[in-house]
């Protein structure tokens, strides 16, 4: 009769290095998003007018002596994108060869396809001179970050250790995590639309808007705003749509702050302070508060490039935190099949006969 402590035979699992490599790829993606933010903040998107070459040179052979001014930001962005593309290719191959879960193999394929598509979009943005492509490019970048981070999460021993256990988190919390994360994604699209209009700040003051709670947007008011912008800062003219869009951006920010605050409080109240979702919820709230402060500082500093780029980076982390929270809380509801992780160098504590073993916190 086999010992009750014997390990359950399982198929081979990927090494811990695969999970670490996936997190490395996610970290590199965040750096790439920061590089893209610097390009937009400095309006350096067309500093290198050709693609895939750089001023006629092979991208990887472009002389360092020519990395000057805005060319530096655009060229570094291209090189960073190439690094992320290489890492993603390695990750996809590694998943296909080592991970026994079929759905994980296809997630790797999806990541590879998305990074190739993203690279092509970046090139079309340069060659076709379409700002709309830039907005779509930004949206795909955020989605790709979430996908790679999800792959990293699914590769951890912690995730595999949830095998056979039911998450205690109510389904309603998972739905709220997902809904608020969707709102953050909409906010990032609005922000990308604002950035790619290259009009600077449509509203130069905060928390007021041209001295009011809601600014006038009639033709005479917009003409007055533009006259003031040209005389004061030499900014490009704006439209009433751009003023309204920035007000929508502010209102969504308030809604996100209130929603994430509620999620953090409610999760902690239901699951306790030590639960993984509770800790993630509190971290999420800290990120959103920091994001609001950076947004205000962006306005107060006249859209300083460094502050605006930090605002872009923290926005990506806000989306990432919400996405991981939604995945963790909704996976049991979706019927995700877990395999029992192999027991190594550990002895399970067995409950006496007839007594249920105590649940372990996630």
Write up this protein.
The protein has 362 residues and is an all-alpha fold. It folds into 2 domains: 15-160, no CATH class; 168-339, no CATH class. The chain is 64% helix and 0% strand. The chain has helices spanning 16-41, 70-98, 102-128, 131-154, 157-160, 171-195, 219-232, 240-271, 276-300, 305-330. The longest helix has 32 residues, at 240-271. The radius of gyration is 24 Å and the shape is flat. Residues 1-12 and 334-362 have low confidence and may be disordered.
What pattern of helices and strands is seen along the backbone? HHHHHHHHHH
Query: Structural class of the secondary structure composition?
Result: mainly alpha
Strand content: under 5%
Distance between the termini: 32 Å
Sketch the major β-sheet.
Answer: none
Radius of gyration: 24 Å
Q: Kindly give the count of domains.
A: 2
What's the total helix number? 10
**How does the overall form come out from the CA principal axes?**
flat
- The number of distinct β-strands equals 0
Mean pLDDT over the residues? 85
Which regions contain 5 or more consecutive residues with pLDDT less than 50? Answer: 1-12, 334-362
The helicity comes to 55-70%
């Amino acid at each position: 009769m086999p010992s009750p402590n014997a390990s359950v035979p399982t198929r081979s699992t990927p090494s811990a290095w695969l999970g670490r490599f996936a997190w490395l790829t996610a970290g590199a993606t965040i750096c790439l998003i920061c590089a893209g933010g610097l390009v937009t903040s400095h309006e350096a998107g067309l500093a290198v007018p050709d693609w895939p070459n750089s001023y006629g040179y092979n991208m990887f052979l472009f002389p360092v002596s020519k990395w000057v001014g805005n060319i530096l930001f655009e060229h570094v962005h291209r090189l960073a994108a190439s690094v992320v593309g290489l890492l993603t290719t390695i990750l996809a191959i590694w998943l296909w060869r080592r991970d026994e879960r079929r759905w994980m193999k296809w997630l790797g394929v999806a990541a590879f396809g998305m990074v190739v598509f993203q690279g092509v979009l970046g090139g079309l943005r340069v060659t076709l001179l379409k700002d709309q492509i830039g907005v779509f490019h930004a949206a795909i970048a955020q989605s790709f970050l979430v996908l790679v981070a999800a792959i990293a999460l699914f590769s951890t021993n912690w995730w595999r250790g949830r095998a056979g256990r039911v998450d205690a988190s109510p389904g309603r919390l998972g739905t709220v995590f997902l809904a608020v994360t969707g709102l953050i994604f909409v906010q990032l699209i609005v922000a990308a639309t604002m950035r790619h209009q290259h009009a600077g700040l449509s509203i130069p003051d905060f928390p007021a808007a041209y001295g009011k709670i809601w600014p006038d947007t009639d033709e005479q008011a917009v003409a007055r705003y533009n006259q003031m912008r040209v005389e004061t800062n030499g900014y490009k003219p704006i439209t009433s749509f751009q003023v309204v869009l920035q007000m929508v951006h502010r209102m969504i920010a308030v809604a996100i702050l209130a929603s994430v605050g509620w999620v953090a409080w409610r999760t902690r109240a239901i699951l306790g302070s030590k639960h993984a979702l509770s800790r993630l919820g509190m971290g999420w709230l800290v990120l959103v508060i920091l994001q609001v402060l950076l947004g205000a500082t962006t306005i107060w500093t006249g859209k300083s490039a460094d502050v605006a780029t930090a605002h872009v980076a923290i926005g990506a982390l806000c989306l990432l935190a919400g996405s991981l929270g939604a995945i963790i809380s909704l996976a049991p509801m979706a019927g995700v099949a877990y395999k029992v992780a192999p027991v190594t160098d550990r002895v399970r504590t067995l409950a006496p006969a007839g007594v249920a073993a105590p649940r372990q916190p996630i």
